[in-house]
Specification:
Layout: E1 19-26, E2 30-38, E3 50-58, E4 64-69, H1 77-89, E5 92-98, H2 121-144, E6 152-157, H3 159-170, E7 176-180, H4 186-192, H5 197-205, H6 216-227, H7 236-240, H8 252-255, E8 264-269, H9 277-286, E9 291-295, H10 306-317, H11 329-333
Parallel strand pairs: 4-5, 4-6, 6-7, 7-8, 8-9
Antiparallel strand pairs: 1-2, 2-3, 3-5
Helix pairs in contact: 2-3
Length: 337
């Protein structure tokens, strides 16, 4: 049925990772370095071949490690890096990778973030596949170089939250995952999210675009019916080898069932207009309805207040040596008055 669509394969060749590491910033309580190594993904696009990972290392005792995945595009990354710096000042080694097709890793001729929701189905699959492989290989790198910690967590914002769900399903070694302002159901995201207007424009204006994406009603109907049947898939291999629509094979809501409910905290932006509420609810439900913290923010307004979100995460993790961090959500809510 989907003969001309590439087959999804999240596997990669494990082994030693040759890397370079440059120290680029030094603070009173931390050191920041940039690690680079060649991606383990078998088919990276030109411009995305090199994995880039910012590491914020505490100067004192390391109490844990946090892997933080940024959102779509470029603007949010500077705030995510500030989050990493804040964690490190408290004794948590923070790892912030740049996901492929974003920021300095955008493929030649493209725009930051665009290819995750392209009008071409094969481009979408290639991009998501690459991101997941990179995250898994970064965890390998951390373990190989004794940068991992038994007390660990992953934070994923928007795109990062979606990638984190798939990565966790493939490698459930993360103690706890915090998903911020994220959702599932790729069909509804493509056709209903205000941010993805560029994708819809290409689908409607270009007769050569993928026939698997350009009919909204057919696509949404097909995928919603398939979601009713995902209980029959008991392993990731079952999903990858099934005949479901290929878009579902990179949909976090499909893989959510493989995460342990008690190891997930869902931070929902109450005023999120970027992700349709149905997509947020679907991901949360498929995760087993884990603990949800509803925060009075929209999809991007939390970014300047990343310390408040960081404190919520620290309090949830209960690190030994870090006391309760005060949370003042009224301060955050001022932006709505």
């Amino acid at each position: 049925m989907f003969e001309d669509v590439r087959k999804i394969d999240f596997s990669y060749k494990r082994g030693d990772i040759d890397f370079s590491r440059a120290f680029i910033n030094k603070g009173e309580n931390f050191r920041e370095s940039l690690v680079k190594f060649y991606s383990k993904y078998y088919s990276p696009k030109k411009g995305t071949e090199t994995v880039e990972v910012f590491i914020f290392e505490p100067k004192g005792k390391v109490l844990g490690v946090g892997l933080i995945l940024h959102g779509l595009g470029t603007k949010n990354i500077s705030y995510i890096l500030k989050m990493g710096k804040y964690f490190s000042r408290l004794g948590i080694r923070a790892i912030v990778p740049i996901l492929p097709e974003n920021y300095t890793r955008t493929s030649h001729g493209s725009m930051s973030g665009k290819n995750y929701f392209s009008s071409d189905i094969n481009t979408i699959l290639n991009t998501w596949e690459h991101a997941v492989v990179d995250v898994l290989s970064i965890i390998d790198f951390l373990k190989m170089n004794k940068l991992w910690h038994e007390k660990n967590f992953m934070v994923g914002y928007c795109l990062g939250g979606m990638v984190s769900v798939i990565a966790n399903a493939l490698n459930p070694s993360i103690d706890h995952t915090f998903i911020i302002a994220s959702g599932g159901n790729m069909a509804e995201l493509i056709w209903d999210s205000p941010t993805l207007e560029y994708t819809r424009r290409e689908l409607l204006d270009n007769a050569k675009v993928s026939a698997y994406l350009n009919d909204r009603e057919r696509l949404v109907s097909t995928i919603n019916k398939s979601f009713e049947k995902i209980s029959q898939y008991h392993t990731v291999s079952d999903i990858l080898n099934s005949d479901i629509h290929p878009l579902m094979k990179v949909d976090p809501a499909v893989y959510a069932k493989f995460l342990l409910r008690e190891k997930v905290t869902y931070l929902e932006a109450r005023f999120d207009r970027t992700l349709p509420k149905s997509t947020r609810n679907l991901l949360w439900k498929n995760l087993g309805k884990p603990r949800k913290i509803l925060i009075p923010i929209d999809h991007i307004s939390w970014l300047p207040f990343q310390r408040l979100i960081s404190n919520i995460i620290i309090n949830e993790m209960r690190f030994e040596g870090i006391g309760y961090r005060p949370i003042n959500l009224r301060y955050l809510a001022k932006s709505y008055k």
